[in-house]
Amino acid sequence: MIQSSVEFFKNLPPKQCTDCGKKIDEQHECYGNHCDHCLAGE
Description:
Blueprint: H1 5-10, H2 36-40
């Protein structure tokens, strides 16, 4: 059975920052790979 695109995105796991591993609080399908903390360079 083919899954709808809406169901596919609902079932994606939370994104994690590629630098520190923290969960990124944003839409899963966005292109960012870094959390706000790592983006700020702190």
